Amino acid sequence: ERLANHESMFQERPHYDLDPTYIQEQWVKRADGGTLIFVAGFLNTLAWLFLCVPIVQVGWILSKRGTHKIASHFLLMALAVVGTVVEVIARLMMAGLRGSTVWLSEKFNLANWTAQDSNDGIGWRVLEMIHVATDGLAMWVDAFEWIALTGVLTIIFFSTRSQWKDQTNLTPSFGLKWSRFGFFIGFLCFFDFLANILRIVEFRRFNRIALGITIVNMLIFFPVWLIIMGMQLHSNKIQEYTKQSMENSEVVEEGIEVEAEDGY
Questions:
Q1: How confident is the model at residue 184 (pLDDT cuts 50, 70, 90)?
Q2: Which of the four pLDDT bands, split at 50, 70 and 90, describes residue 120?
Q3: Cβ-count burial of 23 within 10 angstroms (0-12 exposed, 13-18 middle, 19+ buried)?
Q4: What is the rounded distance in angstroms from the CA atom of residue 5 to the CA atom of residue 59?
Q5: What is the pLDDT of residue 220?
Q6: How far apart are CA 49 and CA 186, in angstroms?
Q7: How many CB atoms lie under 10 A from the CB of residue 202?
Q8: Would the CA dihedral through 155, 81, 174, 191 be positive or negative?
């Protein structure tokens, strides 16, 4: 819905001319699709919130509890947290801005500013310019999402690969094929970032490219990657509990042996 609104808005000549009649029609469409856009933004925010925690867990496990390559793994966790915070704040701001502008379009006098019954449409022109300016904020927030995901997936790949190369000193925490798959997804995320930025140059072409990459990446590849990540996190958790149980058993056995020796 949002992409369709963008395409109709930026590709028709009346928009560049700030034709009040055309702008008014566009605001009627935006008001009708406002609920859908709000729900999409809300779900996107929830997705980042639910993604942040497992990514931080992955960073903590790859860092071997903060003892291995602290800087790169801290950057990994920071990208996840910052991306989530930026997403939440930006979506709340955009929801408020969209709600306010739709309210202005429905309740305020935007047609007659210079004189009564002048029908100059200055108010509609001003409102549309405000909308274009604030919509640019949403575009850059979306672009930051892609670059943050690119950074997260790239760091995970190189960290996992380094552990597989140095198995004499480190036990790999995650699968190498999984990290390579994530690196490929990060590569696509970077191209999505570029396509989002290049929409400023030529909207129609790069908007279609961004839409195609997003559909393939976020609806097919990334969910599969997340499922595999969840399985590996569960496996790591079981291994950690088993290791702790064995260590506790050894401590208890040593204590019993010491007590037995003291008894003798």
A1: very high
A2: confident
A3: buried
A4: 38
A5: 92
A6: 19
A7: 9
A8: negative
CA-to-CA dists, residue 239 to 24, 235, 251, angstroms: 61, 6, 18
Quote the percentage of the chain above a pLDDT of 90: 19
Stretch 165-173: mean pLDDT: 74
Q: What is the 3-state secondary structure (H, E, C) of the chain?
A: CHHHHHHHHHCCHHHHCCCHHHHHHHHHHHHHCHHHHHHHHHHHHHHHHHHHHHHHHHHHHHCCCCCCCHHHHHHHHHHHHHHHHHHHHHHHHHHHHHHHHHHHHHHCCCCCCCCCCCCCCHHHHHHHHHHHHHHHHHHHHHHHHHHHHHHHHHHHHHHHHHHHHCCCCCCCCCCHHHHHHHHHHHHHHHHHHHHHHHCCCCHHHHHHHHHHHHHHHHHHHHHHHHHHHHHHHHHHHHHHHHHHHHHHHHHHHHHHHHHHHHHC
CA–CA distance from 85 to each of 79, 145, 206 (Å)? 10, 11, 27
Which tens digit of pLDDT belongs to each residue from 150-166?
999 999 999 999 888 87
pLDDT bin (cut points 50, 70, 90) of residue 115 is confident
Looking at residue 19, its pLDDT comes to 85
pTM for the whole structure: 0.77
The total number of residues shown for the chain amounts to: 264
Q: Count how many Cα atoms sit within 13 Å of the Cα of residue 166 in the half-sphere of its side chain.
A: 9
pLDDT value for 225: 94
Angle between helical axes of 70-107 and 122-165 (0-180°, round to 10): 160
C-alpha 22/C-alpha 19 separation (Å) is: 5
Structure tokens at 11: 């590709």
